[in-house]
């Protein structure tokens, strides 16, 4: 067996049994990156030397019997997490040369538990995008291919496209990601892997380049639900440096995966049956419900009446917060500065014009507009009210059910150019995922099947606040029932 | 008679409201652990939060919140148990985040009021609209280089309280009295040091004028006035400017102006049309600030005595006049000094000495109450020497001057200079005998009815004793000897 084919849990066992060393495991991944990253572009920065040094340190700890929960596990870190001494770009020219003097809390937690960092994963610029096409460091290619169409380059989804592609192609055992409107779940679904956005407040946001503060949440992507559970346990935890982080104990999520779903009531929101939804998505959803019923759960139709307002609400709240969060990239203290004489205003205009890509500029403009005097009440304030209603929809639903099952995405991965010309079409990718962000709920994407062309499709499990355990249990039941054996066309040692 | 300014068309009334920015006394900034000391080397007190680095998040500093609550309590104001932080967005080089965290919609302190004293002895209540917490910006230095500006972020993120008054003031004097009183309360509370020349207290002055009985006319805001005297001057200058505009047929436009201290006039800074659109919205990095009632009650119980209460106590317990009590409580440090001098002694005599010789000495030596030429303990010891008869009032003044000069204790000065008052009646009798013997003619005159000569004998005796004779004893002995 090739070391890059291990699951994270399998690799941990192999390391503990000395079947493989951490250095060997890391080297195998670095070799795979060297071979495939030029094509997939999943990593912006590869930290080979640092990774090998970390792996050797892991081997020493393993030898001393001091292995941490993630000891020797090679991971990709989305390039939105600040990593001390390692360039952190947010996939933007404006941070192209930024080397943080600090480590984000989440990546620091992973290092504490013994993880090895292979490098920084590509993403949409400032995590704004659903196809990983907006990165200043180039697009990421999805390692999956449509049957009979090896030429078409499919998108990996976004914004955590690099993380998802790297994990799917066996260029990492797992990866950190972030999710503001679906940026973990949609690329996980497009790349045929699992990914969870935990409850807002579960993971610290400290040291993660902010997109929309009230929606951003870090989470893992990995090839199995259990691997996500293992990663999340290390990433999560209260952080006094983040006022929105929540002081609750972090459960053993991996143990929860095997709880089973017997007796659980699974909500099926009728508003998620969209007009014109592809039949195979509809079938997949039904299949998921059948599996859960067979495993002892009871599907229950529920109503989330404000669902149709979720996407417009999201596209007001997120750009509004982004327009303010991105004001600090002004060329004054760090990052790109474009100086050609002139005054302070010229410095701002030149730096930001050269530093931000089109999608980021679009969202800054939308956000600035919806917050401006005279429009604030009509847009931002109204959106906040709708957001409260969406949250209440879920509260009412969770009085009846334990978890909710929906499709993860309205389609399988598409090719670059097929949908990206129109930003509004692109925004529709988030239609099933934004609600969990608006309501702050945990949402897991789990591979559940393949479309007619052999591309992976995912289902989404939404849970109650801080009840990731039930979400993992439901996700694992689907994963077990689906038992997908197909592999992406582009992968290490294919 | 209310204050008016006489224009060509008759008297004009002034309407004034103040927005005071007061820097919170605390070890750390509002949302970061960086220090707040004044005068540190540029950019030496800056955390990554203050510099707006990627991924940095604000965490409220509990002490800054407590200081705002104490201030609210000191201003007799409503404490909002739930408040929120908002972002005020604008671009400037000394504003690293691109927004200032402030409290527009839900401030921590609501309506309150303070009473100010006016020079005619009357008092007036001034309403407080609100108090909110916000971050200060950094400082732009434009005078270090011909082509570049430099930024010092030491002040970036320091906690400020913005204290907004109602438009209740009607004269420059009232504006000055309000600011004086506010500063006094903040200093008593220890929530702001009130040092206007270091910028830890600055005022934005809102001024409009109107004819008697009219509703408010358009106001202008004079920004960043940094002394009480300048506030009073700015009010008058701006009012006169507006009167001129109205009387020449123009209209006053709402705008932001600056006070030119050299010329004593205000000039336009930006018009309403150029006003920033700050795009305020609730800061998503900060959940609502929720205070527990018990915590507020604890802070309230631990509040120091405030100037009005202390003044009333001096009048009630010490029998001081309203004026004297008012002067002594003006500065917290002066009041503390006075109380130490007065403790266990005659409080009126203590007040006379503190306000008389001691204040004169402070002025003359150009020192202040924090570093006085004579300590409260020393002044108290001097009062004790008068009380036990060791020193006469006249000698005490001499000893006091020597204390100011040398910094020595009064006991040591009395000892070394032999200034001790003579209370030994035998010694006084011996001197009196000599004086009477040497002035036999005057004694005869006195005995024949020239009573006025008694003073002459007192003077001669004191002179012979170099002023050290106890005046009462000298009098008694002379009376007895002269028959």
Automatic annotation (TrEMBL), chain A:
Q: Name one Pfam family in it.
A: Amidase
| Assembly description | Heterotrimer of A, B and C subunits.
NCBIfam families (alphabetical): gatA
Give the enzyme class: ligase
Q: Does the keyword DNA-binding apply?
A: no
One Gene Ontology cellular component annotation held by this UniProt entry = glutamyl-tRNA(Gln) amidotransferase complex
Q: What does this protein do?
A: Allows the formation of correctly charged Gln-tRNA(Gln) through the transamidation of misacylated Glu-tRNA(Gln) in organisms which lack glutaminyl-tRNA synthetase. The reaction takes place in the presence of glutamine and ATP through an activated gamma-phospho-Glu-tRNA(Gln).
Domain Amidase stretches: 24-471
Homology family? Belongs to the amidase family. GatA subfamily.
Among PROSITE patterns, the record links this protein to: AMIDASES
**Which keywords has UniProt assigned to this entry?**
ATP-binding, Ligase, Nucleotide-binding, Protein biosynthesis
Q: Which reaction does it catalyse?
A: L-glutamyl-tRNA(Gln) + L-glutamine + ATP + H2O = L-glutaminyl-tRNA(Gln) + L-glutamate + ADP + phosphate + H(+)
A GO molecular function annotation here is: ATP binding
Return the PANTHER family for the record.
GLUTAMYL-TRNA(GLN) AMIDOTRANSFERASE SUBUNIT A, TRANSAMIDASE
Task: Indicate whether Protein biosynthesis appears among the record's keywords.
Answer: yes
Which InterPro entries is this protein grouped with?
Answer: Amidase, Amidase_CS, Amidase_dom, AS_sf, GatA
An annotated GO BP:
translation
Protein name per its UniProtKB record: Glutamyl-tRNA(Gln) amidotransferase subunit A
EC number from the UniProt entry: 6.3.5.7
Q: Where is the active site?
A: 78 (charge relay system), 159 (charge relay system), 183 (acyl-ester intermediate)
UniProtKB/TrEMBL annotation, chain B:
The record, for Gene3D superfamilies, names:
1.10.10.410, GatB domain, N-terminal subdomain
Q: What is its EC number?
A: 6.3.5.-
Q: Which UniProt keywords apply?
A: ATP-binding, Ligase, Nucleotide-binding, Protein biosynthesis
Tell me, what is an example of a GO biological process annotation in this record?
glutaminyl-tRNAGln biosynthesis via transamidation
* Family from the record: Belongs to the GatB/GatE family. GatB subfamily.
As for what it does, the entry says:
Allows the formation of correctly charged Asn-tRNA(Asn) or Gln-tRNA(Gln) through the transamidation of misacylated Asp-tRNA(Asn) or Glu-tRNA(Gln) in organisms which lack either or both of asparaginyl-tRNA or glutaminyl-tRNA synthetases. The reaction takes place in the presence of glutamine and ATP through an activated phospho-Asp-tRNA(Asn) or phospho-Glu-tRNA(Gln).
Give the protein name, as stated in the record.
Answer: Aspartyl/glutamyl-tRNA(Asn/Gln) amidotransferase subunit B
Q: Which organism is it from?
A: Roseomonas acroporae
